[in-house]
Design brief:
Layout: E1 2-7, E2 12-19, E3 25-32, E4 36-41, E5 47-55, E6 60-64, E7 67-69, H1 76-88, E8 90-91, E9 94-102, E10 111-118, E11 121-122, E12 133-139, H2 140-148, H3 155-170
Parallel strand pairs: 4-10
Antiparallel strand pairs: 1-2, 2-3, 4-7, 5-6, 5-12, 8-11, 9-10
């Protein structure tokens, strides 16, 4: 049985009475999310473009790769390309899927699809009213150092940057 608690713009919260694989019955809080796409935009072989965005939930600006939620019926790759241009003003010429991951499967079905974007060209930035950010360009090695020193703490950003770094070590570039 599913009892709706809250329906929002981004998430829906419900309490679901379920029978678990061990036969026990439990009431579980579940957040339903449409999914999201994120991109590690590489300006060149070693320079990544990120945003430093204000996030009210944590009360500060944080470093992130461009990302956003999927619109109804939207393919993750289309969302990824859209989000990079909206947030950074760059168009992605080539998009390569890296991985998809469950953010917090203990209470949500959210999946984030991460891509690497290359062959960037100027586009048009189009921020939403709730997006307060600045565009940051930095060497990939510096971004990895900021993961290690705790400056970059966003999970999708950490995962995306580290996967790109690992791929860079196994090939010369993404072209």
């Amino acid at each position: 049985m599913k009892k709706p608690i809250y329906k929002g713009k981004i998430i829906d919260l419900s309490v679901e009475t379920v029978t678990l694989p061990n036969g026990a019955t439990a009431d579980l809080e579940v957040i339903t999310h449409p999914g999201a796409a994120a991109v590690v935009p590489m300006k060149d072989d070693r320079t990544v473009i990120m945003v430093r965005q204000y996030r009210h939930a944590v009360g500060r600006f944080i470093y992130e790769i461009p990302a956003g939620k999927l619109h109804p019926g939207e393919a993750p790759g289309d969302c990824a390309v859209r989000e990079v241009e909206e947030e950074t003003g760059y168009k992605v010429g080539r998009l390569e899927p890296l991985l998809s991951f469950l953010t917090t499967p203990g209470f949500t079905n959210e999946i984030i699809h991460i891509f690497v974007g290359t062959e960037l060209s100027p586009g048009t930035q189009n921020l939403g009213a709730d997006e307060v950010l600045e565009i940051i360009e930095m060497p990939l090695d510096q971004a990895i150092a900021h993961i290690n020193d705790g400056e970059i703490r966003d999970a999708k950003t950490i995962i995306g940057l580290q996967v790109v770094c690992l791929k860079m070590k196994s090939q010369t570039d993404f072209s």
